[in-house]
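Q: What would this complex look like in 3D?
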Amino acid sequence: MPTDSARWLTELCARVALAGDTASLLVLVTSEPARINEVRKAVVALLQHEGCATEDLGALDTRDGPTAWNERARSGAGVAHVFSIAPSNKLGRAAFAEIANAQRESLREATGPLVLLLATETEVELRRRAPDFVTWIAQSWSLPSAEALVRMTQERGAVAPVPTATAAPIRFLHLSDLHLRTAANKRVDQERVLRGLVEMLSRTRAAAPLDLIFVTGDLAFSANSEEYALVTSFIARLLEVTGVPRERVFVVPGNHDVDRAAGRWLLRTLDSDEASTEFFGIAANRRWHAQKFEAWSAAMRAALGDRSHGLAVGAEAVENVEVRGTRIAVALFNTAWFACAGDDEGKLWLGEANVESAAAVAARAELSIALMHHPIDCLAEAERDAVSAHLERSFDVLLRGHLHKTRAQVVIGGRGALAEIAAPAAYQGSRWANGCFVGEVRPDARTLRMQPFTFGLGADPWTVDNRVFPSDERDGHAHTFRLGERAPTSEREAVAQANAADLFWRLPSTRRLAIAARLGVESASTRETEERAAERLVRSPEGAEVLREFSVRASAPRVSTEVGEQLVSSAFRAAIRDCATERFSRADPAFFVKALTAVGRVWTAVPRESRPTASLSEAVLAIAEVLAACIDGPVSAERSPWNVALDPRTRRLRVDLLIGDRRDPPHERAVLEVDSLLEYERDESRLLGRLDSYRGAFDARHAGLILLGSRDQSTHSIDAELTPAQHIAFVLTLP
Amino acid sequence: MAVDLKRFQALTRVFDPIYRPRADAAHGSVEGYVADTHSGYRAQLEGALALNDHAKLLAAGQPGCGKTTMLQSVAQSLVEEGRAAVFVDLEVHAALQDLGLHELHLATATELLAFIEGGGATVSSHALKQAADLLQRLLGGDRDVAPAWPESTPLSEGFRGTLRGAHDDPELRRVLRTLVATDPTSTPATLLMRLLDELAPRRPVVILDGLDKLPPDQARDFFLRDSKPMVDMPGAAVLTIPLSLVYESSFNVLSERYNNADSAVLPAVRLYEFDGDARRRVRFEAGFDVLRRIVAARTAPIDANAILPETVDRAIEGSGGNIRELARLLQASLVKAYVRRGEFVELQDVEAAIADQRESFRRTLQPRFVPVLQRVRDAFQLENVDDIGKLLLYGLWVMEYRNGITWYALPVPVEQLLKQIERTRPHAD
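A: Here is my prediction, written as structure tokens for the whole assembly.
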């Protein structure tokens, strides 16, 4: 009799043998979604080691239902096909459950057992939303931990399988700044440069076929319809020679795509965040500026179909495309809303809320790419930092143009790395170097290889540009960038989704009904209307955005829900840069004390007058900034919906600072309260007792208290205290 | 002892939850079907169809309770009676997550055409011409002159191909809908109406299976808000609907349009009678017998003695009367017997299978279920079928029975789970 820990394997093997070439659906469940790929590989290795004919289909797309599973599994009858599906958030899980239920019938066409690996949350969602599908599962087993599985493979000498067919990379062309002009004033070599490009693409098509094309603005020169006729015909040629379907070509406008006459009497810039929220939040407010893009829009719709081509905002600015099983989100940002003449720098706005909503949607994809014409430096100073933060946090690649200089760099952001690629002008006369990039993304390895091309003289004028990455000679002067890890963002997204309904019910009823009206939900009773709206909010892609819009309006003055970037002085920010130089992994048992020490160091390094002590709220947000800089995980502060929990007596608790997500294990979570030393001295046990409730409600192992108002102006101190429930709490006292 | 792989293979296959016990899908002959499985409900349904040639009926039920199998068998016996009855499996013809009325009508008309073309009935050449015209239009796309459909090939093939395209590709779905809209005088609905009108002497019945798989929101829109499918068509129709719809507060409005909306639920096979006076349940042998015969019908062609009788009875108890659940438990028991190299499925195997099922329930248990489950166990009632109730019913945590009154019980794995939870948390509030 097999031991219980290996019983699943013995039975799974028996089932695979018994199923032979008939359809059977088997499910494995892991409680570690973050390690699902590792788990799948170990399962495949173990099955193969046991002599089961097994093939690893890899991680399949959330939107793939049983029909797609069968397509993938056509490789052989009687072979067990193992695959994993791990939707990262509630919406994805719901969508997966629906498609699984709807396409259940296809399971009957399978030519052998299908072994589906899921995370526990997904199984729960299946039971909820796909009850028929669940009754079709022949058996489901709960797997041991990833650690134990890996150990099992080692003990048994099962070799982890070679990853599924080393898939071809996703290849894209990045063009920018075509500046096409009509015959009257066109430069003599325009036609020659672009014809050469088309010829080069045609030549390389067989060896290096393109999947996607990105054009980051300035397709025309004066934005008149004659020029756009050239643009559409050039795009048509591109489509023809590359074979890329038009849905996979993405364009954003640049300053040369703006009808300047139409913009002459319009606002040249915005003066505040509030104005930006109004401009980007309400479509009607953009209607005059949209007139500047009428010729652009008509031409792009003719060339590439009825899409937004950069003129949508928020979640709608993101288009999703799937290439060989990889979900790619492309956010089309129009930096040219306020572009007009040559003096646009510092006057352009993208709208922080616009970028934030788009980023939230894009972050759900496996690969997220942002397109914009101008570099971030051209944006208004007021939003520059916030926009870059959102881009860094949620996107893997930023493609832009405008400066006609080739530039490629990796920005290390909060989450990982954002590769910023600036393409040179594809055509800007011979004064400038004419060039473009061909990029290759390997989603599994999370790498981006960029190869620059340039137009020169001679019979074969488009060649690899060896000046951009001179040291990468060995790889054809192409440079490979490592892309950021995706998990933390999607986790954050998942938590946000889970909280959407929560947050909705916390709004006043008038606002709930306003949201319902906005979502077009109407019902006989108020209660039913609200319930439907809540349901719709959680389920629909625009839900998060709507909620955000109404919640932001609800809270004035506006405070960031994540970190208090607006409220922190530059001196404090500089101190963070100087003092919080180390990032602590939450796997380190001492990370919490280390982080508190960092907070103390930063605080004391700042001159007294620059310390954020105007209110406790200000202090909380500033401390959140320090923590975010020195801890490798999410930190949420004060007004964030994540900081609210219900304690067992259904009291609402709101903790000042929360480190870690709901999904993190307790030892990677911490709760922190900020209060005055005076208050602590008055009633120590009340403050420490409150920490006990927070620890319980947020399931955190670490708890701490930060006290402001120490008489000693030069140093901070950390003490360990026992709470009434006999847990250790750290008390950091700050001057 | 050598275990016969082939024998176990054959046995595990007929008990796979995916296994469909029928030999000939096109004509609905259902192999191994036990006619009195849902005798009461079936008699009602057949009675309604016999008395009213234009009856519009609904069928709901927990997943795996035998809806599809019963409806296939009903279709078969209607055909044997000489009626023009077709069984339309919408899951085969249409993408359910994006089902439109055009596809529903087209799928139904296609099955009727196949029935006619297979010699089951005749219609006028005008009706066939109408079908050919519609097909030509659908195949023609936006071309001015569409190719004519070859006369030698059945029209139903052409429609099936069109549906298959639309099933797989949202773009083709859109094209189909646009094309249909170009001429409101010749749509799948008008064709279906014509066919049903002409078939009137043969008292047509269409059975639409698959609508029960519509996601709840979509089902609500489809039945309660918009279209009320098939009500305006001549002839009789039986439509499966999701159980979730039955518990919508506005479900009763459907009784104006569908004849049996108040008794549309096909219950699990009843294993116990409910004794209302003593408020307890009493074993109902006839129910056990039906399920034993269902098991026997599947094992007989392979090895009638592979599963010991007391084992079958325990699996029946474990299933709570849900046929697919019973198949799953027996299959799992067969695997356990195979793994321990036993020749027969014994009681220990089925107990182990029940325990596995209990653990799978445990993984997805939510604390809010517990008081509801306790109430079902203690009082046989599921009060106010709200969201939790629907989840529990649809997820087979709670079985629904009907004998005069509607009452509920827990299947064995859930009962075991509840008991374990109570043992570990004796004072759970």
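A: To summarize the key features: The interface with chain A takes residues 5, 8-9, 12-13, 16-18, 20, 63-64, 89, 91-92, 95-97, 168, 210, 212-213, 215, 322, 324-325, 328, 331-332, 334-336, 338-340, 356, 359-360, 363-364, 366, 391, 394-396 of chain B (CB under 8 Å). Chain B is about 50% helix and 10% strand.
Q: Very helpful, thank you.
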